[in-house]
Write a structure and sequence with these properties.
There is one protein chain. By secondary structure, the chain is of the alpha+beta class. It has two domains: 4-126, N-terminal domain of MutM-like DNA repair proteins (Alpha-Beta Barrel); 144-268, Helicase, Ruva Protein, domain 3, CATH 1.10.8.50. Helices cover 25% and strands 21% of the residues. The chain is built from seven helices and ten strands. The protein has helices spanning 4-18, 41-45, 144-150, 158-164, 173-183, 196-215, 234-237, and strands spanning 23-28, 50-56, 59-64, 67-72, 78-82, 92-98, 102-106, 113-118, 257-261, 264-268. The strands form three sheets. A four-stranded antiparallel beta sheet has the order 1-6-7-5. Strands 2-3-4-8 form a four-stranded antiparallel beta sheet, with helices on one face. The protein has a two-stranded antiparallel sheet with strand order 9-10. Helix 1 (4-18) packs across helix 6 (196-215), helix 3 crosses helix 6 and helix 5 crosses helix 6.
């Protein structure tokens, strides 16, 4: 699943090309996503200029003067730039034709979303999909003290709490495993038992892990590509435990272990992350 680094990489790619440009046409080839794409979306947006390309959690927010287009990449979606008239690929469901560039949303599983939030409905951050999201990891208010305080009433395993996105967004399955390894914290540890000093390590590990992923363009997920059609290189360069079951830990040589938490795979070193 595209996580925060992949979505932020996509946002940056879009922002550098189409912000300030007119959307000439939206071509929708399949309306049935997680929620149906509005039938009149082209009528709503045709001829309007994109004011800003922003992100909240894993949601892309394309802001126009009369509302915001909300895009979620789902489990396997991606947005890539194409040449005018280029043949449609399988699962190319939505085309965005701007006055200077064309992009296509490809989503094999159609778990993503393309929704319209008109300006008269109020602040986009109050939208039901965004209102309960946790703090952004690079927000100055996300500190070790904030993290420690927020974990005090969380009895679930720390990995599960991170994945929920209620405290901090963007620490998805891949990056949660990697962050906990950097912090030397067992993913099964009850969140509320983490001391302030351990939260300081985890806070720093989250920032380092996400920064590394952003610098390398996100993870090399088999079905994720950036706006330029290239995959990221996070696994090739940085991953220490994720998808490394039975391989030796880079720190101590102990075989990496895989467990299932909340129906998601977790990878960790049983020696480096004993507690």
């Amino acid at each position: 699943m595209p996580e925060l680094p992949e979505v932020e990489t996509t946002r940056r790619g879009l922002d550098s090309v189409i912000t300030g440009h007119q959307l000439n046409e939206i071509r929708i080839h399949h309306h049935q996503f997680r929620w149906p794409i509005p039938e009149n979306l082209n009528q709503i947006l045709q001829g309007h200029v994109l004011q800003a390309c922003e992100r909240r959690g894993k949601y892309l927010l394309l802001a126009f003067e009369h509302g915001v287009l909300i895009i979620h990449l789902g489990m396997s979606g991606s947005i890539r730039r194409v040449a005018p008239g280029e043949f449609l690929l399988k699962h190319d469901h939505v085309e965005f034709v701007f006055d200077n560039a064309e992009f296509r949303l490809n989503d094999p599983r159609r778990f993503g979303a393309v929704l319209w939030h008109p300006a008269e409905n109020g602040d986009i951050l109050n939208h039901q999909l965004l209102a309960r999201l946790g703090i952004e990891p690079f927000d100055p208010q996300f500190t070790a003290t904030y993290l420690h305080k927020a974990l005090q009433d969380k009895k679930n395993a720390i990995k599960t709490v991170l994945l929920s996105g209620e405290i901090v967004v963007g620490v998805g399955n891949i990056y949660a495993s990697e962050s906990l390894f950097r912090a030397r914290i067992n993913p099964q540890t009850a969140a509320q038992t983490l001391s302030l000093s351990r939260c300081k390590r985890l806070h720093q590990a989250i920032l380092e892990t996400l920064t590394a992923a952003l610098e390398s363009g996100g993870s090399t997920l088999k079905d994720y590509t950036g706006t330029n059609g290239e995959v990221g290189a996070y696994f090739e360069i940085h991953a220490a435990v994720y998808d490394k079951e039975d391989l030796p830990c880079k720190g101590c040589g102990t075989p990496i272990r895989k467990i299932i938490q909340g129906q998601r795979a977790t990878y960790y070193c049983p020696k480096c992350q004993r507690y």
